[in-house]
């Protein structure tokens, strides 16, 4: 078994060959906080774009289109960021396995900050016409590349510093950055809107939260630069196990394992982005909910999401994540059946219940999926392999979800098609999770297909 790898379904036990964090220079707690801070800022930038795409960008960059078509076009630019994420995953994953986790994570944070800051500075359609959406798409691609390097790397950095028996807990810290970034983005969005008023905010005030990214990223860099390199990567260097093409080597775990892992995690991403992004445009344009009310409700749900992650990851460390992940996958499916009917009532209390339910259920699978993906691969190719699975799942799930949901809504005239879309993708993930855990049953070892020595010194 590769050093430090978890047998799926079992509480984590470090291999006797795994280095123990906490030695000289190792600071697991500081590293966990640094990865949380970094991912929070990265997701702040990414979610800020999603909120603006749902509520602002159709008017600023696609004014010649109808409201429905403009929203679809805005969500298409949102999807572009997800399409760019695998490129970031491939590039940052390659160098993360060759030169280290820390350096690549610093670059990814800078890249994300630059992209977001410049989005706040580009002219709108009325000023430069066609070039406005072109620049928006280009900067969205930069955002996607930056986040593609962040997702897998931050999880590895924290998990590989984790003390014995706490790998799920520490792998969960970067996952907490997702709801934390959403909360930060929505709070700043709401405060700016409240201070300026709807007219000024829609005209130019929406730029302020994007320009603020520069300051937030500078703070994040100060925190991130103080952490030490991953002990697992240091061990790879010491054993001279750095390979020339880590991505190709990571694929040797086999197609069944890779495919099932991808299927298992795709629904969480799809459901999360329908809840966080599509529901904003649907609720305001179709159901007449107040914009501030919906943003506040989604923010409250994100706070619940954030707060419950440590509870679920501790449970996974003590009892294993197999049953928890499958139960969480089933719970998401069930709640998707109820989600839009609750929103469609027009009742504010039931709408809040629908959104809080998402905030309670989504973290059950989200908090451990990064660790499940990472533990598929040995340390010397873990960044590359994890990036491919994570970013592919993000495209198939989250990146396309708001656009597909909008298209289904426009074609069918109701949310029924969106509900069926979510139910189908959740069912696929549930079947994938069950099959994955049967492929690697309790008590078995990880696949031996990836051999650390096969490309050593090449």
From TrEMBL:
GO molecular function ontology, one term from the record: symporter activity
Q: What Gene3D superfamilies does its record include?
A: MFS general substrate transporter like domains
User: Record's family?
Assistant: Belongs to the major facilitator superfamily. Metabolite:H+ Symporter (MHS) family (TC 2.A.1.6) family.
Q: What does this protein do?
A: May be a proton symporter involved in the uptake of osmolytes such as proline and glycine betaine.
Identify its membrane topology class. Answer: Multi-pass membrane protein
Give the lineage. Answer: Bacteria, Bacillati, Actinomycetota, Actinomycetes, Kitasatosporales
Q: Which InterPro entries match?
A: MFS, MFS_dom, MFS_trans_sf
Q: Which UniProt keywords apply?
A: Cell membrane, Membrane, Symport, Transmembrane, Transmembrane helix, Transport
* Transmembrane regions listed in the UniProt entry: 68-92, 104-122, 128-148, 169-192, 204-225, 258-281, 293-312, 324-343, 349-368, 388-408, 420-440
Query: PROSITE patterns per the record?
Result: MFS (PS50850)
* Stretches for region Disordered: 1-29
What is this protein identified as? Answer: Putative proline/betaine transporter
Listed under GO cellular component are: plasma membrane
Which compartments does it reside in? Cell membrane
Q: Which residues form the Major facilitator superfamily (MFS) profile domain?
A: 31-444
Q: What is its main location?
A: membrane
Give the signal peptide range: none
Q: Which sequence ranges form a coiled-coil region, renumbered to this chain?
A: none
């Amino acid at each position: 078994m590769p050093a430090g790898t978890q047998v799926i379904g079992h509480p984590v036990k470090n291999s006797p060959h795994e280095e123990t964090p906490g030695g000289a220079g190792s600071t697991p707690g500081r590293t966990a906080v640094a990865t949380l801070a970094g991912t929070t800022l990265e997701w702040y930038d990414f979610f800020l774009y999603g909120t603006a795409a749902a509520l602002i960008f159709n008017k600023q960059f696609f004014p010649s289109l109808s409201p429905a078509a403009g929203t679809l076009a805005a969500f298409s630019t949102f999807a572009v960021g997800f399409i760019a994420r695998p490129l970031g995953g491939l590039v940052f994953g390659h160098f993360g396995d060759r030169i280290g986790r820390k350096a690549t994570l610093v670059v990814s944070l800078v890249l994300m900050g630059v992209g977001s800051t410049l989005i706040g500075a580009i002219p709108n359609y009325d000023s430069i016409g066609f070039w406005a959406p072109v620049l928006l798409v280009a900067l969205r691609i930069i955002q996607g590349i930056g986040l593609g390097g962040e997702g897998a790397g931050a999880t590895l950095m924290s998990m590989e510093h984790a003390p014995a028996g706490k790998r799920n807990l520490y792998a969960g810290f970067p996952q907490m950055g997702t709801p934390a970034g959403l909360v930060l983005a929505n709070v700043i969005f709401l405060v700016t809107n409240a201070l300026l008023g709807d007219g000024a905010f829609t005209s130019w005030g929406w730029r302020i939260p994007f320009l603020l990214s520069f300051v937030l990223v500078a703070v994040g860099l100060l925190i991130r630069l103080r952490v030490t390199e991953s002990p697992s990567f240091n061990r790879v260097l010491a054993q001279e196990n750095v390979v020339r093409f880590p991505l190709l080597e990571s694929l040797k775990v086999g197609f069944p394992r890779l495919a099932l892992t991808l299927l298992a995690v795709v629904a969480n991403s799809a459901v999360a982005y329908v809840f966080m992004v599509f529901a904003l445009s649907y609720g305001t344009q179709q159901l007449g909910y107040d914009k501030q009310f919906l943003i506040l409700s989604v923010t409250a749900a994100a706070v619940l999401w954030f707060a419950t992650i440590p509870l679920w990851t501790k449970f996974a460390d003590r009892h294993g994540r197999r049953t928890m992940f499958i139960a969480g996958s089933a719970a998401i499916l069930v709640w998707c059946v109820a989600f839009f009917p609750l929103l469609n009532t027009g009742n504010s209390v039931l709408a809040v219940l629908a959104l809080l339910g998402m905030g309670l259920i989504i973290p059950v699978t989200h908090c451990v999926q990064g660790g499940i993906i990472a533990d598929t691969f040995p340390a010397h190719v873990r960044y590359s392999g994890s990036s491919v699975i994570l970013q592919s799942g993000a495209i198939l799930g989250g990146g396309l979800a708001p656009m597909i949901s909008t298209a289904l809504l426009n074609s069918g005239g109701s949310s029924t098609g969106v509900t069926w879309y979510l139910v189908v993708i959740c069912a696929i993930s549930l079947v994938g999770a069950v099959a994955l855990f049967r492929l690697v049953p309790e008590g078995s070892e990880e696949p031996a297909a990836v051999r650390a020595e096969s490309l050593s010194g090449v």
